[in-house]
Specification:
The complex is a heterodimer of chains A (250) and B (281). Chain A has a domain of 167 residues: Rossmann fold, CATH 3.40.50.300. Helices cover 30% and strands 26% of the residues of chain A. Chain A contains 8 helices and 10 strands. Chain A has a 6-stranded mixed sheet, with helices on both faces. In chain A, helix 3 packs across helix 4. Chain A is globular, with a radius of gyration of 18 Å. Chain B has 281 residues and is an all-alpha fold. Chain B has 13 helices and no strands. Chain B starts with a helix and ends with a helix. Classes of the chains: A alpha/beta (250), B mainly alpha (281). Chains A and B meet through strand 6 and helix 2 of A and helix 8, helix 9 and helix 12 of B. Bound molecules: adenosine-5'-triphosphate and magnesium ion.
């Protein structure tokens, strides 16, 4: 199994505020990584660095064996943003059109036929169980349904790595479970590697293969079951003070 | 009715210009509205006015004939577009600050050049409110070229423009060169504004870019439909507005915008009645 992402000694600051300090970790092909940490711990920042949305200041990041500065994303990495459902709700676009936006990098000199593109869009909508809403306006869907459409948009291009930044905010408990099941399927059946950002450790440990605890630096990286078997005290030492308050048993 | 318009060359040129403008203004306007840039179009049109006033002044002072006020208007519009885009990336958190800056600077410069060119005359009046008269053949060619360019770019970069308008972050991650396309977009906006000013005038150009879109959004089911309906509403407003403006001897900017607003009101009402009818049974 190869490595998709290798982060070494990355530090990052906004103005003078140091947000990440000497962060190193790597992500293997096929992994389902849970990235957890309290508010403001730097989760979104590290994601933005991986996606090239924030400029690397210190340390190095390799994506698909290329330095991130040189890595031109042609659909290898895709993501669902933390703000995904804070878009302009009046935007006149159907679910189908939104999913189609995930195919932009496919379009260029070797443009696949309209039929093929359409097929890919329906395939993605089907995977997230949103087929019947293909022609519904995105603003007319519920929060959880919109989230599914955004996931379809992120996977329509068959990425190798899918990054999701707190995708379950605003999704009810029952749908959260379905949602994790969907992610597991993407991971196991389509072989898409995943990074799932969350501050709810309790509900993701059963699904992920790797757990990464971040609070400015990496406090834990390893097997979720080892993490589960630790005592609260050990965990809070690893992770920071407020950790046990957001763990709950399932 | 159309006879008179089509038998005089200048009027015919005006009519063709109207047809082109009725197409490209709502076409680009759809993207402008969903990106919430409607007011920026207003800022740009006033910068264009400054360019036109500058051209009038130069004409008066140095009898420059190679560059007409129309040309200087285009140059100013493009310059203004680049300034706006830079302001928008400098003030990321409150991008609308670009509007008062460019709008007031545009008006300020217009006043100065108009005064230097000996005050308000009929020329300036035509640029403010539009005119049915006098689109020269060379101006028509410039507008035709602009239209072909805009249509070509939008067809070729449709997916990119659409994705960027909806979600800039995602578009950037999927490898779209956001910065380049933003510049291209705002320059196209400048060109469309400069072209439309011949017909609807500086003060009403943003209305032609937004009113048809506002109407279309209420009835369209998808983004592509929104574009299509916007163009239809835009063409109806421009054609009927031009003809009625010609016969009533009113600047067409006024008639076009009133018709566009009427279409909006009628559509909203029709939709309301349709729904109340539907839900009653
Ligand atoms: N663009 C920015 N400019 C300045 N400071 C920022 C910026 N983005 C984030 N920060 C700061 O960096 C720190 C880490 O932010 P980040 O968004 O990475 O946290 P997070 O772990 O994703 O938090 P959350 O769980 O709330 O999403 C925060 O203290 C935040 O205030
Ligand atoms: Mg975050």
């Amino acid at each position: 199994m190869g490595q998709l992402i290798e982060v070494s000694n990355v530090s990052h600051r906004y103005d003078r505020h140091l947000v990440l300090e000497d962060v190193s970790f790597s992500i293997d092909e096929g992994a389902f990584v849970g990235l957890v940490g309290p508010n403001g711990s730097g989760k979104t920042t590290i994601i933005k660095l991986l996606l090239g949305l924030e400029k690397l200041q210190k340390g190095s990041i390799e994506a698909f064996d290329k330095p991130i500065q040189k890595f031109a994303n042609k659909g290898h990495i895709s993501f669902v943003s933390q703000k995904a459902n804070s878009f302009n709700r009046g935007f006149p676009a159907t679910a189908k059109e939104v999913v189609g936006m995930g195919l932009t990098s496919k379009i260029g000199y070797f443009k696949p036929s309209q039929k093929k593109l359409e097929y890919l869009i329906f395939e993605a909508l089907d995977l997230v169980n949103m087929m019947e809403y293909a022609n519904t306006n995105i603003g007319d869907l519920s929060g959880g349904q919109q989230q599914r459409v955004f996931i379809a948009r992120a996977i329509v291009n068959k990425p190798s790595l899918l990054i999701l930044d707190e995708p379950t905010v605003g999704v009810d408990t029952e749908n959260v479970e379905n949602f994790y099941k969907l992610l597991s399927d993407l991971n196991k059946q389509l072989g898409i590697s995943l990074i799932l950002v969350s501050h709810d450790i309790g509900s993701i440990t059963t699904h992920v293969t790797d757990l990464l605890c971040l609070n400015k630096t990496i406090h834990y990286h390893g097997n979720p079951s080892d993490f589960e078997s630790m005592t609260d005290e050990q965990r809070s030492q690893l992770y920071g003070h407020d950790m046990h308050t957001i763990t709950h048993d399932h | 009715m159309l006879d008179a318009m089509l038998s005089f060359e200048l009027l015919r040129n005006t009519f063709y210009t109207g047809l082109l403008v009725g197409l490209i203004a709502p076409l680009l306007g759809t993207f402008i509205v969903v990106r919430r840039l409607s007011l920026i179009a207003d800022g740009l049109s006033h910068v264009t006015l400054a360019g036109i006033a500058f051209g009038l002044f130069m004409q008066k002072k140095y009898t420059l004939l190679f560059f007409t006020p129309f040309h200087t208007g285009i140059f100013f519009a493009i310059g203004g577009a680049i300034v706006i885009e830079n302001l928008r990336s400098i003030y990321k958190a409150f991008q609308e600050i670009a509007i008062p800056i460019t709008l007031s600077l545009g008006v300020g410069m217009s006043v100065v050049f108009i005064a230097l060119a000996d005050g308000i005359n009929t020329d300036i009046f035509a640029y403010l409110f539009g005119s049915v008269a006098a689109v020269s053949r060379s101006d028509l060619y410039v507008i035709l070229f602009t239209s072909v360019f805009v249509i070509f770019v939008i067809i070729f970069l449709y997916k990119e423009l659409f994705a960027l308008s909806f979600d800039e972050e995602f578009a950037t991650v999927s490898g779209i060169r956001a910065k380049l396309i933003h510049y291209l977009f705002i320059v196209m906006t400048a060109l469309v504004i400069a072209a439309s000013i011949r017909i609807v005038g500086v003060l009403l150009v943003s209305a032609l870019m937004t009113l048809p879109v506002a109407t279309a959004i209420r009835v369209a089911k998808s983004f592509k439909q929104t574009i299509l309906y916007s163009i239809i509403y835009g063409e109806v407003a421009v054609i009927t507005g031009l003809i009625s403006g010609y016969y009533l001897e009113i600047p067409p900017g006024g008639t076009i915008v009133i018709i566009a607003a009427f279409l909006l009101g009628a559509t909203l009402l029709a939709k309301k009645f349709y729904f109340s009818y539907k839900y009653k049974g």
